[in-house]
């Protein structure tokens, strides 16, 4: 790459290139071209971002949301237009966030969940509508969490699991139904996990792996949810 970076995001564009955005020494973004194996610099984000989320929308744009640090910038979002290589500011979220998740629903909207709001972990979730470029709050979650994982299931519901709540690390999990905008608690994981990963298997089951279950202990265990 042209600039070293950490806590950045990578998004695959419709043309097959990969857009990497922040966190670099300056707020440059760059593109990787698989056909040439080369990186080229593209437009800079309007606000330097770390620990944000990036979502490749169905219309070809890329949405980035939030950033680490100042509360005022945790609300912000912007869109990358690959046709001109420029970032433009879009509607701000209703709640400031960091260490949240963003999931693209089957209807093209983006579901953003929880994260740190100031010094506390939040219960809120909201939706970004690419057609209006506005954010609206959706159903409140049953458990506050940050550093969690979120994955869109085959049927379109979203599973969030683990993370850290206001009392410490958590093993809780819940499902979001886009049709009703309601969250439903499901069975807990066997271990509390923060900064874990989740993957959908060919069977439709969800595999979660690793993560912290204390401030010093990193897990090597994995588990499968077979009840959804």
UniProtKB/TrEMBL annotation:
Keywords: Kelch repeat, Repeat. Transmembrane segments: none annotated. Gene3D superfamilies: Kelch-type beta propeller. SMART domains: Kelch. Pfam families: Kelch_1. This is Uncharacterized protein.
């Amino acid at each position: 790459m042209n600039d070293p970076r950490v806590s950045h995001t990578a998004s695959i564009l419709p043309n097959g290139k990969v857009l990497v955005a922040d966190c670099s020494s300056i707020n440059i973004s760059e593109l990787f071209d698989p056909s040439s194996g080369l990186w080229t610099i593209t437009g800079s984000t309007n606000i330097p971002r770390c620990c944000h989320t990036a979502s490749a929308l169905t219309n070809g744009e890329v949405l980035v949301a939030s950033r680490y640090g100042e509360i005022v910038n945790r609300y912000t979002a912007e869109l990358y237009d690959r046709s001109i290589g420029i970032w433009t500011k879009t509607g701000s979220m209703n709640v400031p966030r960091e260490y949240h998740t963003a999931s693209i629903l089957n209807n093209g909207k983006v579901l953003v969940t929880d994260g740190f709001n100031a010094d506390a972990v939040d219960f809120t979730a909201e939706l970004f509508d690419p057609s209006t470029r506005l954010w609206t709050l959706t159903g409140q979650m049953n458990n506050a969490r940050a550093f969690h994982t979120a994955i869109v299931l085959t049927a379109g519901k979203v599973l969030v699991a683990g993370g850290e709540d206001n009392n410490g690390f958590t093993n809780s999990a819940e499902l979001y139904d886009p049709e009703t905008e309601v969250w439903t608690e499901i069975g807990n994981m066997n271990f509390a996990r923060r900064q874990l990963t989740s993957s959908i298997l060919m069977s439709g089951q969800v595999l979660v792996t690793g993560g912290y279950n204390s401030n010093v202990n990193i897990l090597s265990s994995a588990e499968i949810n077979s009840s959804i």
